[in-house]
Amino acid sequence: MDNYSEIIKACLKGNRVAQNRLYHLFADKMFGVCLRYADNEDEAKDILQDGFIKVFVNLKQFNNKGSFEGWIRRIIVNTALEKFRDKSYLFAVNMETDYDPNRNKYDHILSELSAKDLMKLIQDLSPQYRMVFNLYAVEGYSHKEICKMLNIKEGTSKSNLSRAREILKEKVKKYYNISVNWM
């Protein structure tokens, strides 16, 4: 079901049944997005709630160009980022010298893990690493876009991604006894 125009129209008129339907159509998938950015399920629920409030407040701005699900996802991701953006500790780590663009050769190993296991590993990352990893590896943003979104240097984005990958690699080796030869 790609055409949500009737539900959107009803939501814009304040129809609570339509709003409830819209929420339930996307809540589970967007909750998964929230979990990738949150420290725990309660925090993810808060992000989801705040995000859907923004969806309904800004629904009139959706112009039917592109995916409606993508539009909602962007709001949810931005809501998650806003929650952490103002925390001064978030991007205190800057290890620019550790960035190696050739270190992404191991990404195929992560496909051997279940989605639930991978989600747990990502959630265990510190906030600064988790944010950059999610934005780059999951959402597909470039380092240039990430640095603008998070108000950090591009080198910081790259080094945080590199460090997140190293931490994930070590956790995979330690907890799942998977041979990791991606250096």
Give the topology:
Elements lengths: L4 H8 L3 H22 L3 H17 L10 H18 L21 H4 L4 H9 L3 H12 L4 H8 L3 H23 L7
What this model shows, in words?
With 183 residues, the chain is an all-alpha fold. It has helices spanning 5-12, 16-37, 41-57, 68-85, 107-110, 115-123, 127-138, 143-150, 154-176. Helix 3 crosses helix 4 and helix 8 (143-150) packs across helix 9 (154-176). It is globular and about 50 Å long.
Main features:
183 residues; mainly alpha
Look at the helices and sheets and give the structural class: mainly alpha
Distance between the ends: 43 Å
The averaged pLDDT comes out at: 81
Low-confidence stretches: 88-106
Strand content: under 5%
Compact description:
With 183 residues, this protein is mainly alpha-helical. It is 66% helix and 0% strand. The radius of gyration is 18 Å and the shape is globular.
